[in-house]
Amino acid sequence: MAPEPLVPKEDLHAAIEARRELGSDLEPQLVESFVARIEERLTKRPPSAARSEGREGSFVLALLSVGAGIPLTAIALNLSGLVALVVVWLGIVLVNLGYQRS
Predict the structure, then answer these.
(1) Cα dihedral across residues 20, 21, 22, 28: positive or negative
(2) For residue 22, what pLDDT is reported?
(3) For residue 12, is pLDDT > 60?
(4) Which residue, of 27, 57, 71, 99, is most buried by count of CB atoms within 10 Å of its CB?
(5) Taking the model in full, what pTM does it have?
(6) Tens of pLDDT along 54-97?
(7) Among 25, 95, 14, which Cα is nearest to 62's?
(8) 55 vs 58, 61, 64, 66, 70, CA distance in Å?
C-alpha cells in the first residue's frame, strides 16, 4: 500500500499557480501557508511502523561491515595486535550505530 501524500497534488499545483498570479511579493506568505499544511498533516499522521523497525538498508550495511571486518581483523592482528583489532571493530560498530540512528 502506497503511503498517503503529505499534501495532495492539487494543493501543490494551486500554490504554484497562486505564486504565478500573485508574483514574488507574496511568495513568503504562500510558502508559509503551504508548509503549515504539511506540518498539520504530519502531526495527524500516525507514527510510521517502518521507522520503529529500523532503517532500510541496515541489514546490508551489517553484512558489508562483517565482510570488511574479516580482512581488517587479519591486517590489524598481523600488524599491530589486539589494540588495533579493538579499534577496527569499535569503528565498525560506531558506523553501524550512527547509520541506524540517523
Answers:
(1) negative
(2) 81
(3) yes
(4) 99
(5) 0.46
(6) 567 788 888 899 999 999 999 999 988 888 999 999 999 999 88
(7) 95
(8) 6, 10, 15, 18, 24
The span from the CA of 18 to the CA of 97, in Å, is 45
Q: What angle do CA 72, 77, 81 make, to 5 degrees?
A: 130
Secondary structure (DSSP) of the chain: -PPPPSS-HHHHHHHHHHHHHH-GGGHHHHHHHHHHHHHHHHHHSPPPHHHHH--TTHHHHHHHHHHHHHHHHHHHHHHT-HHHHHHHHHHHHHHHHHHHH-
Q: Are 73 and 89 in contact (CB under 8 A)?
A: yes
- Is 65 in contact with 95 (CB distance < 8 Å)? yes
C-alpha cell at 19: 505564486
Q: Can you give the residue ranges of every domain in the chain?
A: 9-45, 53-101
